[in-house]
C-alpha cells in the first residue's frame, strides 16, 4: 500500500524538520515547498496540504495570495499550524489581535465531538510560541478548541476540509494525537 503524500508549505518556521517528522511518524510521506513558490494548483499526488508557522505577518495578504488561493481552491484536507492558521483565518476575514505572550506548554480544551480529536484527551498540553491570536473564528469556520488565553485555539471550516491550530502540534505527544486525527481524513 502506498503511503499518503502531504505537501508541507514552509512559511519561514524554524520547526519544519519536526513538522515533517510528525507526519512521517504517522505514516505520511512529505514534500516541502516555500510559501513564495507554491503551485497554482495542487498536484494530484498530494492527499493533504499543511501550512507551517511563520515569521512574516500572517495578514500580509499580498505575500500569501498564491498560498491562500491554493488553500481555498484545492479539494484536499488542509491544516494550518500557528501562523498557518492565522494566514487561513485572516484570509477568511478574522481579526488578528495581540495577546499574552506564550512560550512553552499550555493547556487547551478541545471539542471531543469533532472526529479530528478522536485520539486526543479533552484537555491537551500543547507547545505555544506566539503573541498574536485570532479574535474569533472567521465566517465559514468554527472554533473547536479554546484556552484561558485564547478563545480560538483550533478552527475547522464548515465543510470539514480546512483546520488550524494556534499551537505547534509537532512538539508534543498531545499534538501528535491531534495530527493523527487529521491524517485519518486522507489515509
TrEMBL record:
Matching Pfam families: GATase
Keywords recorded for this protein, A-Z: Glutamine amidotransferase
Domain Glutamine amidotransferase: 7-172
Signal peptide positions on this chain: none
InterPro entries listed in its UniProt record: ChyE-like (IPR044992), Class_I_gatase-like (IPR029062), GATASE (IPR017926)
Presence of keyword Iron-sulfur: no
Keyword Heme: no
Protein name: Type 1 glutamine amidotransferase
Amino acid at each position: 500500500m502506498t503511503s499518503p503524500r502531504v505537501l508541507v508549505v514552509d512559511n519561514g518556521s524554524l520547526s519544519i524538520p519536526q513538522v515533517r517528522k510528525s507526519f512521517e511518524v504517522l505514516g505520511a510521506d512529505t514534500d516541502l515547498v516555500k510559501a513564495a513558490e507554491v503551485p497554482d494548483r495542487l498536484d494530484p499526488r498530494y492527499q493533504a496540504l499543511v501550512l507551517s508557522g511563520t515569521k512574516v505577518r500572517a495578514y500580509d495578504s499580498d505575500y500569501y495570495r498564491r498560498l491562500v488561493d491554493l488553500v481555498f481552491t484545492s479539494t484536499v484536507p488542509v491544516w494550518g499550524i500557528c501562523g498557518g492558521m492565522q494566514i487561513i483565518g485572516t484570509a477568511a476575514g478574522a481579526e488578528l489581535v495581540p495577546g499574552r505572550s506564550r512560550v512553552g506548554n499550555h493547556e487547551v480544551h478541545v471539542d471531543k465531538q469533532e472526529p479530528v480529536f478522536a485520539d486526543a484527551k479533552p484537555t491537551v498540553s500543547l507547545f505555544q510560541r506566539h503573541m498574536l491570536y485570532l479574535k474569533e473564528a472567521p465566517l465559514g469556520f468554527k472554533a473547536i478548541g479554546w484556552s484561558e488565553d485564547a478563545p480560538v485555539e483550533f478552527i475547522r471550516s464548515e465543510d470539514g476540509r480546512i483546520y488550524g491550530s494556534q499551537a505547534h502540534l509537532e512538539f508534543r505527544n498531545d499534538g501528535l494525537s491531534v495530527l493523527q486525527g487529521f491524517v485519518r481524513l486522507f489515509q
